[in-house]
């Protein structure tokens, strides 16, 4: 299981492309200035046997770069001591998020006449969805920047007569296919755009002979979770971002 945890977390950072990645025993330390939590949060590579004494060392590594420290830690029994250590250092758990895993065989086939555009580089249509007025402009720009840096990504976009309406990204690394940044503009929601994107990205994954897949989704995003459950995704673990209160 720990092997799967490490490969999944390494694949996550391959996708979100932090500017720099440091390491300590059992940890990855992504360094970046971003609103994308996964690109800036220290994350364990296993779910047992981690020493809470490293918290201060991790804080020092981030401070040396002028960055705030935050952690992304699974709510599993083997990390209870680490979570207690974070509480003792003034961190609080926020933004509960599910890591879901699945099998590519459960993803839908591409429908006849599908108009999803795939490419190995970000396109103007793909970018424009994240920067649309339906989403926070700062976060959208950060997601475009993060997802544009990975060497193992495929970009999907969908347009109608009015212009681009949906976008998403898949990353293929460490033996995993993973979904990131699925977005649909408000005027096109409820019309199957996300399913169309997933089908096309899934076809790209199957062409690469990948069988395992994962994604991360916030607990409060009920519509997305229903869609992912319908594709056979199951909860691998729940995690929180651990942050200190703003001074």
In short:
This protein has 247 residues and is α+β, with helices and mostly antiparallel strands. Helix content is 31%, strand content 32%.
What is the topological layout?
Elements (H helix, E strand, L loop, with lengths): L1 H15 L3 E5 L2 E5 L11 E2 L9 H11 L6 E4 L5 H9 L2 E13 L13 E3 L4 H7 L6 H11 L5 E8 L2 E11 L2 E9 L8 H15 L4 E7 L3 H9 L3 E11 L3
Parallel strand pairs: 9-10
Antiparallel strand pairs: 1-2, 2-3, 4-11, 5-10, 5-11, 6-7, 7-8, 8-9
Structure description:
The structure is a single chain. The protein is an alpha+beta fold and 247 residues long. It folds into two domains: 2-97 and 240-244, no CATH class; 103-237, Aminopeptidase (3-Layer(aba) Sandwich), CATH 3.40.630. The protein is built from seven helices and eleven strands. The protein has helices at 2-16, 54-64, 80-88, 124-130, 137-147, 193-207, 222-230, and strands at residues 20-24, 27-31, 43-44, 71-74, 91-103, 117-119, 153-160, 163-173, 176-184, 212-218, 234-244. The strands form two sheets. It has an eight-stranded mixed beta sheet, with helices on both faces. The protein has a three-stranded antiparallel beta sheet with strand order 1-2-3, sandwiched between helices. A hairpin with a 2-residue loop joins strand 8 and strand 9. The longest helix has 15 residues, at 2-16. The chain is globular and about 55 Å long. The mean pLDDT is 94.
């Amino acid at each position: 299981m720990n092997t799967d945890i490490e490969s999944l977390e390494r694949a996550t950072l391959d996708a979100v492309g932090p500017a720099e990645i440091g390491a300590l025993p059992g940890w990855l330390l992504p360094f970046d200035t971003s609103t994308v939590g996964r690109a800036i949060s220290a994350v364990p590579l296993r779910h047992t046997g981690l020493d809470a004494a490293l918290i201060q060392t991790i804080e020092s590594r981030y401070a040396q770069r002028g960055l705030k420290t935050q952690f992304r830690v699974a709510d599993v029994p083997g990390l209870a001591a680490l979570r207690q250590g974070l509480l003792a250092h003034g961190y609080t758990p926020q933004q509960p998020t599910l890591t879901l895993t699945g099998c590519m065989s459960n993803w839908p086939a591409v429908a006849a006449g599908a108009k999803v555009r795939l490419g190995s580089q970000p396109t103007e249509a793909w970018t424009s969805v994240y920067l649309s007025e339906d989403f926070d402009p700062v976060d959208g720009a950060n997601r475009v920047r993060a997802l544009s840096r990975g060497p193992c990504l495929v970009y999907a976009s969908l347009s109608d007569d009015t212009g681009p309406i949906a976008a998403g990204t898949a990353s293929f690394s460490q033996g995993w296919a993973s979904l990131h940044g699925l977005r649909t503009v408000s005027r096109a929601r409820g019309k199957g755009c996300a399913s169309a994107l997933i089908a096309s990205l899934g076809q790209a994954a199957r062409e690469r002979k990948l069988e395992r897949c994962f994604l991360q989704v916030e607990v409060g995003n009920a519509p997305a979770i229903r869609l992912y459950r319908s594709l056979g995704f199951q909860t691998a673990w729940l995690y929180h971002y651990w942050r200190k209160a703003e001074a």
